[in-house]
Amino acid sequence: MPFAETRMHEEGMKTALDRGRRLLLQNKKCTLVVREVITLLEQHPAFDAGIGAVLNRDGEVELDAGIMCGETAAYGAVAGVKTIQHPIQVAYRLMEERKGQNRFLIAEGAERFAAANGFHPVKPDYFHTEREQRRFEQLILNTNFHTSTAFSGNTMPRGTVGCVVRDTFGNLAAGTSTGGAPFTLAGRVGDSPIPGAGFFADELVACSATGWGEGILGVQLSSRVAFQVSTGLHPAEAAVQQLRHLFQKHQNGQNIEATAGIIMLDRYGNGAWAFSTPRMARGGWQEDGAIWTAI
Questions:
Q1: Among this protein's residues, is 6 annotated catalytic?
Q2: Backbone φ and ψ of 239, nearest 5°
């Protein structure tokens, strides 16, 4: 992200973290906390999720989100939605369907499900911001633009959002929400709503990833990190190893290596993060501690 936008990112994170802190002090479940934290991030224009999301090549916003409960392995996800105000809330609703008949819905099907479950649609331009309109107009003129380059420099605003939580019952949850990568083809889906790639949670660890989605999907970043933690590797070591694997494994047509970031929390409450991008906004809170943020 550009240096000029770091303060706005930190303000958005602090507001969301304070909401999560209050809910955890009320002994709320980890999945509900993930939902509420990401809801606030989706409505903050600093991030590429909800309001402020990037535009695709048609000049439209398409949103993806997913959430997972470590205790039950239940998950919910939506992709390519244009009229759902808070995609993470609909993903949560899908996860909460105990029979698991529908876990992942896309586009109009997801929007119909949302409407049938009491979520009022918004107009597609609800998510548009002047910043992203300006970026879209610049990218139209750049015939050599590749979506992966959005994650390799400091000059382009971006910001998929994620959250990992351990609640007072010791259970873990993870979630991710995004507007995708800038200037992609309509209908493109990256890693964010895919369990095991953009997010993952089990009894041992919760993970949420951000970065070049095609690369993250290719290595199933979150599940690979979680597996390494299950073998006894420290979360931070696992994250660094798998980001290195991603970097070595995937390149775009311009021979630029794939970059990403990941946040993690294990069953003991140990948090970890790693990133191969120039910056990654992050923050946290634990009981008896203060909220912190960093860029």
A1: no
A2: -65, -45
160, 184, 259, 277: which is the annotated catalytic residue?
160
| pLDDT (tens digit per residue) in 244-256 | 999 988 776 666 7
Ranked by mean pLDDT, the top range of 76-90, 144-158, 280-294 is 76-90
Domain locations in the chain?
Answer: 3-278
12-68: per-residue pLDDT in tens?
999 999 999 999 999 999 999 999 999 999 999 999 999 999 999 999 999 999 999
Q: Which of 168, 176, 179, 180 is nearest to 194 (CA)?
A: 176
Task: Indicate the burial class of 105 (C-beta count within 10 angstroms; 0-12, 13-18, 19 or more).
Answer: buried
What are the start-end ranges of the E strands in the chain?
63-69, 75-81, 104-106, 161-166, 172-178, 199-201, 205-211, 260-266, 271-275, 282-284, 292-294
Which fold is adopted by the domain 3-278?
A: Glutamine Phosphoribosylpyrophosphate, subunit 1, domain 1 (3.60.20)
- If one counts every other C-beta atom within 10 angstroms of the C-beta of residue 172, the result is 29
| Both structure tokens of 118 | 């009491």
Q: How crowded is the C-beta side of 94, counted as CA atoms within 13 Å?
A: 28
Q: Is the entire prediction scored with pTM above 0.85?
A: yes
Give kind and range of the element (H or E) at residue 226: helix 221-230
As a whole number, the mean pLDDT across the chain is 92
- What's 147's DSSP letter? G
pLDDT at 217 over 90: yes
**Which amino acid is it at 291?**
I
CA atoms of 27 and 21, how far apart (whole Å): 10
Letter for the amino acid at 189?
A: V
Instruction: Report yes or no: 164 and 208 within 8 Å, Cβ to Cβ.
Output: yes
- Residue 241: phi and psi, rounded to 5, are -60, -45
